[in-house]
Amino acid sequence: MLLALLVPDPAAPRAASRDRIADAVAIVLALAYGLGMMRLGDATRPGAALPWPADVAVGLACAAALLLRRRHPLAVTAALLPFGAVSVTATGPIVVALFTAAIRSRLPVLVVLGAVNVGTAGLYFVLHDDPAFDIRVDFVVRGVVTVAALGWGLFVQAYRRLTTSLRDHATRLEAEQRLREDRARLTERARIAREMHDVLAHRMSLISLHAGALEVRGTVSPEELTLAAGAIRGSAHEALEELRAVVGVPTGRPEPPQPGLGDMDELVGGARAAGMAVDYRNELPADIPPEVLGRTVYRIVQEGLTNARKHGTGPAATVRLAGAAGHALRVTITNPFTGTPSARPPGAGLGLVGIAERVALAGGRVTHGPVDGAFHLDASLPWPA
């Protein structure tokens, strides 16, 4: 609360300026209507309830009261209604006040205010000594104008409620989407952590195994070899325990290494066996990328093929791998897609969030989106020389 008071809202000056313009327009329209009705009616004839200068003065005072209609719509309307019995110029400000009250009040209250406004037409007819028109004309004119003002105000009220409801609904959907994306990022990070654990656990288990063999089967400098092998074995075991504690995976038999670039043919073959037409081309040189990089590429292609199968408009995809050591490794996946991102079901695209998280952790960049009837996913990953 204190922060809201100390830091001004940047939208507040614009809103205040907009309100001032709206008030000025409302007053001008109210006076134009009131003065027009005074000229067309019998307010300038002898026998009117008020002389026309006084009629205009009352109308001006009522128009000035419209400046308070935003904060006190019902009070301003109730205060102006009696002047409709003696002043024709005041009918303009009264119509504007009724419109403002209709925006912010319930229907039963508006019915009472409208009935009172129409009833003042009868009082004006009675107070006029020599009216030029029949009382029915006054009732019809004031009744039509009252219904129009109230109806327009109720329409604006309903429109504002609808837009507020839609805006709230959109805000909730955006919050839910952000929550799903955050969960997807956390899931991807957890999967990467599990992969790191599995790979390092496998390596450390091998180190521990070889160190144990060296400790038992050393042939030169037995004492020094035994001490060195024991230190290697102890360090590997401690590193493995620390890794398990950090990642949070229970101790037990280490899992084999996760799939990498060498398993890409098997991944593509599985997609083809599931009925998907995959055009796969590996244009990488003979250099073998680092294992972590290969595993990242495998996961990107795996998720890309899954998205193409679930959200594409045809069971087909094109996969391209290109790059060189010292530059970057580029993964391009294309599949038919004739819809729009907004047309996809809720939750769709969370796999792309996981890809973006994985690529970001690897220091790369990724772009994706529909282009010319196809969905393109392009990831670029650094490949150290």
Automatic annotation (TrEMBL):
Q: Which reaction does it catalyse?
A: ATP + protein L-histidine = ADP + protein N-phospho-L-histidine
Superkingdom per UniProt:
Bacteria
The membrane-spanning stretches of this chain are 21-38, 50-68, 80-103, 109-127, 139-159
**Keyword set includes Nucleotide-binding:** yes
The residues forming a coiled coil are none
What SUPFAM superfamilies does this protein map onto?
A: ATPase domain of HSP90 chaperone/DNA topoisomerase II/histidine kinase
The molecule here is called: histidine kinase
Q: Which organism is it from?
A: Actinoplanes campanulatus
